[in-house]
Description:
This protein is an alpha+beta fold. The chain contains eleven helices and eleven strands. The protein has helices at 2-10, 87-98, 122-137, 144-159, 166-173, 212-234, 246-252, 258-282, 286-302, 309-319, 347-361; strands at 16-27, 37-53, 58-63, 68-73, 106-112, 178-183, 189-193, 198-204, 324-330, 337-343, 367-371. Helix 2 (87-98) crosses helix 4, helix 3 (122-137) packs across helix 4 (144-159) and helix 8 (258-282) packs antiparallel against helix 9. The mean pLDDT is 96.
Amino acid sequence: xxxxxxxxxxxxxxxxxxxxxxxxxxxxxxxxxxxxxxxxxxxxxxxxxxxxxxxxxxxxxxxxxxxxxxxxxxxxxxxxxxxxxxxxxxxxxxxxxxxxxxxxxxxxxxxxxxxxxxxxxxxxxxxxxxxxxxxxxxxxxxxxxxxxxxxxxxxxxxxxxxxxxxxxxxxxxxxxxxxxxxxxxxxxxxxxxxxxxxxxxxxxxxxxxxxxxxxxxxxxxxxxxxxxxxxxxxxxxxxxxxxxxxxxxxxxxxxxxxxxxxxxxxxxxxxxxxxxxxxxxxxxxxxxxxxxxxxxxxxxxxxxxxxxxxxxxxxxxxxxxxxxxxxxxxxxxxxxxxxxxxxxxxxxxxxxxxxxxxxxxxxxxxxxxxxxxxxxxxxxx
Length: 381
Ligand code: GLA
């Protein structure tokens, strides 16, 4: 228990304990930074923060997962190139202060069971937990959207990793047994119930996402270039790929750089798939939902080119098993995880069979997570 660890390190029990979950995205991949649609669920793996106030302006923080400690001064918050695990808390603290929230020193312990660098958004979970931690400790009464945006800002501007808003959003506002349908343009959202007779099974390929950040930046730029090109060719006021129709793409096909066209084609078609997926999920059309997941993977693999051999292997193995509805890579890609929608009664056998096949096919072992869609950090907080 984190309370006992906190007591062992700091000599008394914490005043506040908060948790924020990781996430798995069911469909709507690489659409969030294009003002598009996403359908993630928060998972039953989370990061927990425990802490208490200090009388000064120092933050003394211990990471359970790294078994390391660091401390910083609230009046001079700098990025730490060694204790990089502490930068999420530093970033969140810095921007809260910059926005006029007067923080006070704190002793903090944090850790959890969201695997790192697996595409399940452990960093968003740390950021959201850190923001909610300050909000609880100091009774800050922060608006949920502010919590989400500030957490993302810490990742983008302090840690220096570009990302959309999906991960922080779902970590904050996920709901038990539901997925969350989010419009990343106006940030309106709706919870969509998941049925009890299907399970979300996630396989961790074990491939660390070495290329993820640089290639993510490349994709961001390609999407912007595609927007400029489509606007020019169609003469339409296109602000982002969200504004592009399949018919615009067809019209621009011959005149546009083929690589940019394929990138745009993924995003535009993925938005359509996500809209349809939400509709069929509400109507309990699970077979179609699974097909849309499969199509999403194809599009990510061939048009967007963010999959890798190991993810493709996991997806292909999954599709041969009984009880599978749909399988695709999830998250940024280049390693990390696949997400599978599986009939509940087949889930256990399915998971073992895919993991066995993966081990036989290569050198890595797959991590298996049968996920329960869970509440976000701000639900019942
Ligand atoms: C990462 C980012 C998200 C999103 C996904 C791809 O997880 O953090 O914002 O862009 O990749 O869908």
